[in-house]
Design a protein that fits this description.
heterodimer, A: mainly alpha, B: alpha+beta, six-stranded antiparallel sheet
Chain lengths: 93, 157
């Protein structure tokens, strides 16, 4: 988990030009870090490449739109990292 | 090419879903109202239209990948380099390869050559979503026919 967070934090800092010290596991990518949807595509691209996965952004967005999930479930970084770990584990299964 | 109508590619020459690559031809017209302003007495193909040409080429590759189910929309252009002037009447070869197919987005690497000379290149990001309407999709399919889109490549690919 910590290594996943470090990788994601590095990607966000570099891609979003956000100071590293602002990026915490409790940070909400959109509400706290101000990452917009276009910047998030860059971040998703980098995360997909770094972990060899495909973040299901469309599915997540649809769930949020339908009221079946909150943005916190996917875009608070510790939750995002947990999803990434799940996807990596599913890939290896 | 028909610059005024944003018809920037003429024919799809190669399309491979296995290799995730496409190559198209584009002939810069000898005359166009665009050249009256860009520039008076010194006609040059505008760089933004060269970028659009790379984007359209990439777009057909993405449409092929989704088998005409989804439409790519230009979202970002990175590292665009315009390496030399392009003048009326030049034959261009445009290539694109898929770098990544994400969820709701795709990234390509594209370039244009004139003969063996590099003209321009860029990394291009697209949002990829369902066609906004059936009419739009039908229009794209009609355009595909004009471009000699190799339907066999997506059936067998």
């Amino acid at each position: 988990m910590s290594s996943t967070f470090e990788t994601v934090a590095n990607i966000i800092a570099e891609t979003g030009d956000i100071p590293h010290e602002k990026i915490k596991p409790e940070s909400h990518a959109i509400d706290d870090l101000g990452i917009d949807s276009l910047d998030f595509l860059d971040i998703a691209f980098a995360i997909d490449k770094a972990f060899g996965i495909k973040l299901p952004l469309e599915e997540w967005t649809q769930e949020v739109s339908d009221g079946k999930a909150t943005t916190e479930q996917y875009f608070v970084l510790k939750n995002l990292c947990a999803r990434i770990d799940d996807l990596v584990a599913a890939k290896g299964a | 090419m028909h610059l005024e109508y944003f018809q920037l590619i003429d024919r799809i020459v190669e399309l491979s879903l296995d290799d995730q690559k496409i190559r198209v031809e584009a002939l810069v017209p000898k005359t166009s109202t665009v050249f009256e302003g860009h520039f008076p007495g010194y006609p040059l193909m505008p760089g933004v239209l060269l970028i659009e040409t790379m984007a359209q080429t990439s777009g057909w590759l993405i449409i092929a990948k989704t088998r005409f189910e989804r439409m790519p929309f230009l979202a970002a252009v990175k590292g665009a380099k315009l390496r030399r002037f392009v003048t009326p009447g030049e034959q261009l070869s445009v290539q694109a390869s898929l770098l990544h197919e994400g969820s709701g987005f795709a990234v390509t690497s594209a370039s244009i050559k004139a003969g063996d000379q590099a003209v321009c290149d860029a990394e291009i990001t697209f949002r990829v979503m369902a066609f906004p309407s059936d009419d739009f999709r039908a229009q794209m399919q009609a355009t595909a026919e004009r471009l000699v889109f190799p339907m066999g490549a997506i059936v067998n690919g």
